[in-house]
Amino acid sequence: MESGLDLIIEGNILTMTTQQPVADAVRIRNGKIVTVGTLKDVSKDKGEQTRHLGLKNKTILPGFIDSHMHPLITGITEAGVDLSKVRTIKDTLDCIKNRTDHTPSGKWVLCFLFQDKLLQENRYPTKAELNSISTQHPIIVFHNDLHFAMLNDMALKLIDLPNGLDGVITDADNNPTGYIEDPAIMDVDAKITKNLTDSEILNAINASAQLALRSGITTLHMKESMDVIQFIIKNETDIPVRIKPLVYVYDISNTRIIDEIAGTENLRERACICLLGDGTFDGHTAATFEPYTDDPTTYGMLFYTDEALYRFTKKTHDANLQLSIHAISDRSIEQALSVYEKIVKENPRDNHRHRFEHFEVPTKSQLKRVSKIGLTAGMQPMFIPVCAGLDLEGYRQFIGEERVNRSNAFRTILDENILVAGGSDSPVTAMSPLKGIQACLTHPNKAQRIDLYEALQLFTINGAKIGFEEDIKGSIAPGKLADFAVLEQNPYHVRPDEIGDVNIEMTIKGGDIVFQKED
After folding, report:
1. Are residues 422 and 499 in the same domain?
2. Per-residue pLDDT tens for 155-205?
3. Are residues 272 and 322 in contact, defined by beta-carbon separation less than 8 angstroms?
4. Distance CA 131, CA 238 (A)
5. Residue 378 domain-assigned (yes or no)
6. Could you check whether the bond before residue 183 is cis, i.e. omega within 30 degrees of 0?
7. DSSP string for residues in 450-505
8. How far out from the chain centre does Cα 456 lie?
């Protein structure tokens, strides 16, 4: 379908607007919505060149928005070894060996989506076990959350991390065990991606984009380092989704990147600067007020001191840029919240929309403070089935009953009038807004369930708002971009526990069909 044609789309349209919640048809010109209403309304001034796309038995929603994903590692994961289904060490080693048997010597064997808590043995494969598979291939087994991994000897040699680096676990003789965790895992990621060619990077990002289109997603909030973000923007016309740049910064002692972003035209109005406040529950690195239930000696970790975090966030805020801080648990949330409160008080800025990422276990008192100063949250509903588990045992074993009961508290958070946008953190969970919506409706903690309209908002208009893009996307209204997700069924006619299985029939971006399900 050619861009810019005068097009009428007919179907069951859920606009995600309160003024006109449903419509029968929408008219598009030059990639934007002109009219929304009945078929008669939108057909009043049609001409001979007007095309008609009849989707009367389908449901049309605004193009979905994934508010937090990692395109490079998502694309790499697609080509890696999928360990999401293994349940024993033997299964794990067999999967890896199958790949090494078909991989030339010296080539990386990257394994993803591994969760030791799902194995009968409840452990990682050891370095020795990985060495027994191959000493001619560098092998890395990444945990599902990407915050820790196990490496064989060849991988350790090629990564070549300095002795004593925090996060490199050693044995009694000070030899690396192969296990790398926060914060050293960031160095592992950087070294793996550093040697990728431009072609490999673009192919990985486009692989991610194609996955997104198959799920009805037309906008991705892409979280990557500054150099990768610049590459993405340079090649934006070759990437078939819309992009919101999330610039990940690890070394916050170097504030020059703030000046660089503020001084770059194609980043200044678009980019959000992202920091990492703590780790994850599975790695025992999410920062908690109370000790971990399964290890009372540990409270997780904060990545930065209060003063260092304040200095960086203060300069970012004063440069009129948006901030995002990864904060899983209450202690990290408290650190970030205290800093946010301070910088907003010192320099009041209406509508800053600074973000928390993940925001899994806040306290009730923190929620009221978050709401008071207009902070937002990029959350991932699929963390519930994938990471916490449908019985929440995946988190309960780490943080106990009380904290589990306030984890991923969508109902409580929305009731405090906090803007929440839905995302996947792909490849941690798959890019599938409909499965995320299902997770919101079927939350194991019934007190935290939200209704279907609220769940749809997370991946449409709220995703637009958190990115300052609600004037051009997130709902179906005149003047907005003609981005749509076409569903096989009306989600209001589907059981809550089956919404994730509804097929995406078609994805439309700017009036162009960019994905269509094969019959």
Report:
1. no
2. 999 999 987 899 999 999 999 999 999 999 999 998 888 889 999 999 999
3. yes
4. 40
5. yes
6. yes
7. --HHHHHHHTTHHHHHHTT-TTTSSS--TTSB--EEEESS-GGGS-GGGGGG--EE
8. 16
Percent residues over pLDDT 70 in the chain? 99
Domain-located, residue 188:
no
Pairwise CA distance, residues 79 & 94, whole Å: 17
CA distances from 253 to 169, 232, 261, 305, 344 (A): 25, 25, 16, 11, 21
Domain ends where: 156, 181, 206? 181
* SS3 label, residue 124: coil
Whole-model pTM: value is: 0.96
How far from each other are the two terminal CA atoms of the chain, in whole angstroms? 19
- Same domain for 309 and 350? yes
**Among 465, 487, 490, 467, residue whose Cα is nearest residue 475:** 465
Helix (H) / strand (E) element for 133: namely helix 127-133
The residue behind tokens 């030899």 is 175
For residues 214 and 163, state if they share a domain.
no
Residue range of the domain that includes 51: 7-63+482-516
Q: Is the pLDDT of residue 2 over 70?
A: no
**pLDDT tens figures, 276-302:** 999 999 999 999 999 999 999 999 999
* 72: in domain: no
H/E run at residue 261: helix 256-262
Q: Say whether both 135 and 272 belong to one domain.
A: no
- Residues 361 and 270 placed together within one structural domain of the fold: yes
Place of tokens 């301070």: 342
State residue 415 phi and psi, 5-degree precision: -65, -20
CATH code, domain carrying 508: 2.30.40.10
Say if CB 456 and CB 463 are below 8 A apart.
Answer: no
The answer to whether residue 74 is domain-embedded is no
Q: Could you give the number of structural domains in the chain?
A: 3
Chain Cα centroid distance, residue 445: 22
